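Reading group handout, session on sequence-to-structure problems. Before we discuss, look at one worked example. The prompt was deliberately terse, the way you'd type it at a terminal:

> structure NfeD-like C-terminal domain-containing protein

The input record follows.
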Amino acid sequence: MSLFFAIALLFAFYLFLIGEFLLPTGGLLGFGAAVALISMLVIAFSHSVMAGAVMSAIVLVSTPLLVTGLVKVWPHTPIGRRILNRRPGQAAPMAPQRTTTGGTKLDDLVGRIGVAKSPLLPSGRVVIGSDKIDASSTGMPIDAGSPVVVVRVLAGRVQVRLATEDDLAAQDPTPKSPLSLEQSLDALDFD
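And the output record:
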């Protein structure tokens, strides 16, 4: 008769565990599941060592499968939808982050050159065009007034490095005289 109680407590454990995932109980059902599990193991082992070992094996195999299934089902439940504040399958929209002064998207700043307005040890303030931005250095400290180039935007944070002569030459805004059609065809190597 005591083995019947162990089996009933095993089902109670599963019910409490499912309830903990699906209802906002603040951990009360989880505590009940733990009590049911411990009580079930005590009763099963007091009946026989074999019964306790079998019940332990059942719990060790089935509980991870149940929890995995519950994690996959949870966003589709009413509580999961309310907590996540979205429909199942809907990705959380990420609005592009913009600079505070110019309204430029941060991702559009990659590759642009600016000037460090404060020492970047590793973070500080840089000016790129008309945008004043908080940024961090990717390596060595950068002195105020030094030219910097935006390397990447990571988690909404602009990362810069010291601009090299090649970076400055590539960003040189001086207009070059346009080539005539004959000069541009002569520049092409058709051989």
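Points for discussion. First: The mean pLDDT is 82. Second: The chain has six helices and five strands.
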